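[Discussion] Sanity-checking designs against the backbone

I'm trying to build intuition for which residues belong where. Below is a structure token string of 358 positions. I'd appreciate it if someone posts a full sequence so I can compare it with mine line by line.
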């Protein structure tokens, strides 16, 4: 009798366990972590409820850029190089800001993937540009302008300390890199509904976010906004990446000045070839929306404020000034609510104001 009762209880518990997992997976978690919709990197990382924005990766603009592996010798007006913001065609509708440059300035645009650092992980757009300079690639392509892009949280590390202006790459290594195709988002493809992600979803949304404002791994933070800035289930919920915060102390006056000096030197090198340098630091998501965070719970970034008054021999694209005005005027989804990257609203707003020569 006791054995039968034990078996029945165990079977009921297992059935309940399976049922809970099935419900969590199919009702909430699957749409967050799978590739059903484009973008959503920060939502997947933090298993965040209420910020997922269903969308597809589509192209609708009449003029579009080309990638380096597609280059066929045609005349190029603008060459772009940067981190994931310059290679984020997988985040949603018209995800490449280069297509807005092409369409709004009616010019040809070529994008080059950044090569990886040799001494630490991550993309190295600055080093890649210098390698292209020394290898003669810019002499072959002959762009009129170059857009060097870097997300704010990584910019001081890339430009505020030592920059090797003599770094080179072999012709073989450069050719192999230029032939590389852009790697889009590769989502979780598991169909196993019993997984630890379901537990993380529950723990984060019922305990860690309400109490600590972060996920269990301390990689994703959540804050409440004073107005709806997004068009999702929770329009006043801001989620952002932890490096937005950890990078703020790096932007000292000395580091920003050094960065500006390096950019001026790079601009002079390019000017000798008849190329105009545009520098586009991409404002961090947490920085852009900070004025609307209830309680102002985190430090304020002064990166852009310190950079603006410095003497420049390059063209500065002030993404914080442009996009802050968009948010202030009520434009929703300037950044995607579920992603670390901006949306087409940001690209359109910026390149309606910044134009390039043909």
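Best answer:
Here's mine. Compare freely.
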């Amino acid at each position: 009798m006791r054995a039968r009762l034990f078996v029945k209880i165990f079977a009921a518990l297992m059935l309940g366990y399976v049922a809970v997992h099935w419900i969590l997976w199919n009702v909430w978690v699957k749409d967050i972590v799978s590739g059903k919709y484009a973008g959503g990197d920060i939502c997947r990382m933090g298993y965040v409820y209420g910020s997922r924005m269903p969308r597809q990766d589509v192209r609708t603009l009449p003029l579009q850029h080309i990638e380096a592996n597609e280059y066929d010798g045609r005349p190029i007006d603008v060459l772009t190089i940067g981190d994931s913001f310059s290679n984020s065609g997988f985040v949603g509708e018209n995800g490449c800001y280069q297509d807005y440059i092409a369409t709004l300035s009616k010019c040809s645009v070529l994008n080059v993937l950044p090569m990886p650092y040799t001494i630490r992980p991550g993309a190295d757009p600055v080093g890649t540009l210098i390698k292209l300079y020394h290898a003669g690639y810019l002499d072959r392509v002959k762009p009129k302008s170059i857009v060097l892009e870097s997300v704010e949280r990584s910019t001081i590390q890339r430009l505020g300390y030592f920059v090797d202006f003599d770094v080179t790459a072999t012709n073989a290594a450069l050719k192999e890199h230029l032939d590389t195709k852009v790697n889009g988002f590769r989502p979780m493809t598991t169909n196993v509904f019993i997984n630890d992600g379901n537990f993380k979803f529950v723990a984060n949304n019922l305990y860690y976010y309400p109490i600590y404002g972060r996920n269990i791994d301390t990689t994703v933070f959540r804050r409440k906004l004073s107005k709806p800035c997004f068009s999702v289930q929770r329009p006043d919920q801001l989620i952002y990446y932890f490096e937005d915060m950890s990078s703020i102390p790096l932007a000292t006056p000395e580091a920003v000045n050094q960065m500006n000096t390096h950019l001026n030197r790079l601009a002079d090198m390019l000017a000798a070839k008849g190329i105009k340098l545009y520098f586009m630091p991409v404002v961090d998501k947490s920085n852009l929306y900070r004025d609307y965070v209830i309680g102002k719970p985190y430090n304020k970034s002064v990166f852009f404020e310190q950079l603006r008054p410095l003497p420049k021999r390059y063209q500065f694209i002030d993404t914080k000034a442009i996009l802050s005005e968009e948010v202030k005027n009520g434009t929703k989804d300037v950044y995607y609510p579920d992603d670390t990257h901006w949306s087409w609203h940001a690209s359109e707003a910026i390149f309606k104001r910044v134009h390039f020569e043909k």
